[in-house]
Amino acid sequence: MLGExxxxxRRASEIAASVEQGVGSGALxxxxxxxxxxxxxxALEVNPNTVAAAYRTxxxxxxxxxxxxxxxxxxxxxxxxxxxxxxxxxxxGARQVADGNPDPALLPPLYDAFAAAARxxxxxxxxYGASPVDPDLARLARAALDADGVPDGxxxxxxxxxxxxxxxxxAHLRPxxxxxxxxxxxxxxxxxxxxxxxRPVPVPVDDDGPRPDxxxxxxxxxxKALIVTCRAQNPTGSVITAARAGELRDVIAAHPDLLLxxxxxxxxxxxxPLHPLAGTVRHWVLIRSAAKVYGPDLRLxxxxxxxxxxxxxxxxxxxxxxxxxxxxxxxxxELWSSGAVDPPAVERAYGERRDAxxxxxxxRGIAACGRSGMNVWxxxxxxxxxxxxxxxxxxxxxxxxxxxxxxxxxxxxxVSMLTAEDIEPLAEAVATATAAAPRRSYG
Length: 443
What we know:
Blueprint: H1 12-25, H2 37-44, H3 48-60, E1 64-66, E2 72-74, E3 95-96, H4 111-123, H5 135-147, E4 156-158, H6 161-172, E5 178-183, H7 187-196, E6 199-206, E7 209-210, H8 212-220, E8 225-229, H9 242-252, E9 259-263, E10 283-289, H10 291-294, E11 301-305, H11 307-318, H12 326-338, H13 343-363, E12 375-379, H14 383-392, E13 395-396, E14 398-399, E15 410-414, H15 420-434
Parallel strand pairs: 3-13, 5-6, 5-8, 8-9, 9-10
Antiparallel strand pairs: 1-2, 4-11, 6-7, 10-11, 12-15, 14-15
Helix pairs in contact: 1-3, 2-3, 4-12, 6-7, 6-11, 8-9, 13-15, 14-15
């Protein structure tokens, strides 16, 4: 079963280390089936519970995965390998519509904001023991949350949305816990759960957000947390409507101990109103990122939530990075308060590009999805073939495998860099690439 590689060890830690050494050296390649626990215990002359503990450690570290009676196998890729890195060579001259980046032309210049922030720091340097959150940023953030009906709570600042999600999950959950996630959904969240040793439970998505029946089923399966995207969902562009929010609140209200994580990364780039689920359960957070509106390199997100969760996140943060640079926080305050970005103009620009592409695809008989945000999701039957044919036609698209667990295949197109002249050629390329296969639905 293991070829020439021999697992050794008397203690669980030694057995786990032996397997990890084999995986790291390539002697245990991805997909390799490991011995049943009792069989390995007999070979090593140890108690089966010792092997069970070793396998549990390996699962928590993302080294192996277990599928019931089908046994345990080496994961197809390390838990630390992000889905975005599993790509392909991009030929010279190909157009990139796969990366999910905002349009640089719609991002504000940063020089003046950082200069003003630096002058403030010179006058009053940030030293150890000071508040980790800039008071002006907290004031602006809380006022915006109040305007959108988000329940009251203090403000915490993290190094982006994914950092916030990781800290919140780690504050309440443990390896092995199940987490309900949108499917299709943000691939980085799937990767994060694997790295944390947590188990994703897929929830189908339609244009109005996570489907209530899917959430109900995921919670019935023991999910201890639910991660949802409020609007501009990646990759489908779905938006949680008022009616859907009411349905979802009814479902999750029956699970008061559920951890609710709402990702509102579309704040200030989409016109759709927010319908928060926050406050329905005891432990919740709502996260907003500066990446799409001010620039990804700022690495800043802010969130609010229940007092216990924010206290745990802040306490653990103090034992690591301590805080997100107050210089960066101050620069965001300068950008925000100076009106460096005109949200309606940004919303209009992305909306016009997205709607134009969806309309062009519809004229060719292709039903694409993208109610809000910067992305369009195109259900396809032959995902690999479509991606390859698009690449041959000079367009780099994101394969749906980066965003799927159990959902049907698809491709994601980012519209942020498109011009009016790009719309028809891109739509025609998609139509040609998908002509040989029937359409699929993402719901």
